[in-house]
Design the sequence.
């Protein structure tokens, strides 16, 4: 039994790793093709791009001669961990909903609502009156609450009116984009102080509110890292415990496996759908809070035509982790690493950061049929494990083949 | 009023054609969540063609000679190319969801992530900025009254001003295509077979219809229409530029499709309604309904933000009332497996 579980876990991990590798390879091939066809990059430039795609996180820039140098780059790794925070949270959001049978494509909207609530709280309560840490906590909680409320809407629509949650989520995403734009448009928090930052909301550090660094910035010098990554890891562990060790988690998963059977067993399925979406929304909202309360990030408020990428990136993060909360930590960090790699590519070569988005999309595409990949790996292992059966039953196999 | 009708049409027509794209996919049993991505890709390919064209000799000669017919022909070729590449892009969705029986929602989401990433990557490589511009192409393709031999100052009357001056031939071609394809979907053998695969593929298979082939054609037609819709959107409302974004039009088209209950006639009505909202939100400050110089909508003082979100709110409300009697294809989203009953 234990061996079986281990092998299943292994195939899952292997399937994810194959998706990642295939995505990176596709990105590498694209870089090579573009490099070789465009005159000003050439073979050496393409080769540098290829190296950066696979190991960009270890790049330390170029030396005096102009060749790429490699090594431990504290600012890159610190920034990676910082950027991992929102995608880990939205990844958890998608994963938890997926475990309960719901596809939460509404993470961008929930993320926006969380952004709005926490920024407004953090900027409106003067820290000269209330201690900054109380304002921070309040803003964080309000971000969670706003996300949860926004997530509960598609949940309610699904549970009581039987509206497909994917459609409801897409609609609420765009409603959120407009609500947030509207709210900030009439708010006094627009950055009118720095002339180059028009269109952005003030940083929360303007009001003295920012996430504690806990000395992490002295390890990863020159990076934006703060305690947010610890909170994200705690959230992931909490979700793991909730889903796997509590009655509530069991009920949620039962609803996801078979809603009607769950109802027959006495589980209140409608309530669980709403709760699941609210938890998912809360996680996405918390991710937005952690990102924007850091004090060194700015929010572009006129966002009615676009949705935040962090929200959508929760989908690949969750899929890559096969919806395991602990796995989300690692896949989230991997996504953030790709982000940093993209920036390195832009900085050091003629390529740009969008190549990493292409890689992510290829990974998601492959994750769509990860079931198939898993099946293929599983079949091969089966053959390896029991060769006797293959030998004893070749005649049947042939017959089956002829029939087709 | 002329302005209002023209602008509404500009927004409504891409919506209509892309919503029909959604219908073709879903009627064959495949949820096409990738409409947005395919639009982005089609728009990029069309604009890229126009950009390359604008540097070619044919275009310069036609422009210099005022040869409007050639210019309109080139516009048509650009539309066809956008459709072709939309179709090619949708192969990814068709292959994953039909042959590999992958999760259609995730596959569509992947394409939605892929299109803007790929397009922005290529635009950056080509133009070294985030927007691919084809200088003034939109105005050369525009049909003006001088084209019909009228003078700049001539008044064509309300009808003429609205439908023959400052319009795009693409708009009318899309309307024509919409009608033809709706008829094909409902009045031909092919259409009936396609729809049967979205309702009960097992039954369709039992009478000798190739479900896989029908679903492939559904998705490919869907991709072609969405790609063309993307280019028409970029040409008519975005001044023939591509920036890896169609402002959520693909998702809005999805809403229009559901709002229209998967039925072309109601979809046409719904897209006009949504187009009107888009038009009001975009130009509410300059809409003069009865020509008396009073901008009524501006004076009411309702924020354009409200107009912008109204289509989505209305869709949710309509869904709330109609989801119980929804006419969604019964087998949509379920991979076809010959073995199941």
Sequence:
């Amino acid at each position: 039994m234990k061996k079986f579980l281990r092998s299943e876990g292994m195939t899952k991990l292997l399937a994810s790793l194959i998706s990642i590798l295939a995505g990176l390879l596709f990105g590498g091939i694209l870089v090579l093709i573009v490099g070789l066809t465009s005159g000003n990059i050439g073979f050496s430039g393409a080769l540098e791009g290829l190296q950066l795609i696979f190991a960009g996180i270890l790049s330390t820039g170029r030396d005096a001669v102009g060749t790429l140098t490699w090594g431990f780059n504290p600012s890159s790794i610190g920034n990676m961990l910082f950027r991992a925070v929102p995608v880990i949270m939205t990844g958890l959001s998608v994963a938890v909903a997926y475990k309960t049978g719901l596809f939460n494509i509404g993470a961008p909207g929930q993320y926006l609502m969380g952004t709005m609530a926490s920024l407004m709280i953090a900027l409106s309560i003067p820290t000269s009156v209330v201690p900054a840490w109380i304002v921070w906590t309040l803003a964080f909680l309000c971000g969670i609450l706003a996300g949860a409320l926004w997530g509960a809407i598609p949940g309610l629509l699904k549970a009581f009116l039987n509206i497909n949650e994917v459609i409801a989520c897409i609609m609420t995403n765009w409603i959120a984009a407009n609500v947030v734009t509207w709210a900030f448009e009439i708010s006094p928090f627009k950055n009118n102080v720095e002339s180059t930052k028009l269109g952005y909301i003030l940083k929360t550090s303007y009001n003295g509110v920012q996430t504690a660094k806990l000395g992490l910035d002295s390890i990863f010098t020159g990076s934006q890292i703060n305690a947010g990554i610890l909170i994200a890891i705690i959230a992931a562990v909490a979700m793991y415990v909730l889903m796997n060790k509590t009655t509530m988690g069991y009920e949620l998963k039962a609803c996801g496996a078979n809603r009607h059977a769950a109802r027959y067993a006495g589980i209140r399925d409608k309530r669980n759908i709403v709760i699941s979406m609210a938890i998912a929304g809360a996680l996405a909202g918390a991710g937005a809070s952690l990102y924007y309360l850091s004090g060194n990030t700015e929010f572009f408020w006129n966002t009615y035509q676009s949705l935040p990428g962090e929200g959508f990136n929760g989908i690949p993060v969750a899929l890559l982790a096969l919806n395991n909360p602990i796995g989300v930590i690692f896949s989230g960090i991997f996504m953030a690493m790709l982000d940093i790699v993209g920036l390195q590519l832009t900085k050091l070569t003629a390529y740009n950061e969008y190549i990493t988005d292409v890689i992510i999309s290829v990974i998601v595409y492959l994750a769509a049929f990860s079931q198939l990949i898993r099946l293929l790996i599983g079949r091969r292992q089966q053959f390896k494990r029991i060769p006797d059966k293959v030998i004893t039953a070749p005649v049947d196999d042939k017959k089956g083949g002829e029939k087709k | 009023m002329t302005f209002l009708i023209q602008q509404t049409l500009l927004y409504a027509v891409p919506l209509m054609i892309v919503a029909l794209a959604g219908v073709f996919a879903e009627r064959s049993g495949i949820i096409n969540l990738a409409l947005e991505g395919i639009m982005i890709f089609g728009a990029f390919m069309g604009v890229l063609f126009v950009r390359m064209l604008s540097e070619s000799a044919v275009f310069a000669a036609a422009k210099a000679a005022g040869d409007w017919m050639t210019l309109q022909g080139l516009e048509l070729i650009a539309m066809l190319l956008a459709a072709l590449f939309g179709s090619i892009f949708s192969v990814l969705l068709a292959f994953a969801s039909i042959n590999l029986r992958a999760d259609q929602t995730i596959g569509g989401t992947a394409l939605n992530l892929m299109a803007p990433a790929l397009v922005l990557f290529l635009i950056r490589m080509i133009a070294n900025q985030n927007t691919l511009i084809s200088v003034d192409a939109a105005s050369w393709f525009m049909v003006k009254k001088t084209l019909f031999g009228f003078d700049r100052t001539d008044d064509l009357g309300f009808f003429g001003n609205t439908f023959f001056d400052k319009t795009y031939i693409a708009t009318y071609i899309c309307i024509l295509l919409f009608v033809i394809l709706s008829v094909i979907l409902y009045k031909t053998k092919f259409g009936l077979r396609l729809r049967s695969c979205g309702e009960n593929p097992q039954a369709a298979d039992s009478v000798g219809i190739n479900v896989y082939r029908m679903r492939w054609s559904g998705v490919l037609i869907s991709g072609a229409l969405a790609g063309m819709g993307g280019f028409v959107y970029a040409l008519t409302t975005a001044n023939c530029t591509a920036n890896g974004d169609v402002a959520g039009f693909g998702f809005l088209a999805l809403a229009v499709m559901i709002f229209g209950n998967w039925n072309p006639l109601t979809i046409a009505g719904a897209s006009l309604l949504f187009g009107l909202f888009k038009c009001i939100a975009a130009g509410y400050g300059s809409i003069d309904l009865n020509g008396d110089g009073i901008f009524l909508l501006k004076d009411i003082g309702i924020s354009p933000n409200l107009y912008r979100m109204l289509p989505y709110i209305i869709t949710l409300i309509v869904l709330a009332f109609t989801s119980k009697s929804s006419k969604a294809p019964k087998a949509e989203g379920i991979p076809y497996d010959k073995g199941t009953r």
Q: What stands out?
A: Chain A touches chain B through 49 residues (CB under 8 Å). Strands of chain A lie at 59-62, 68-70. The two ends of chain A are 36 Å apart (CA to CA). Confidence is low (pLDDT under 50) at residues 386-404 of chain A.
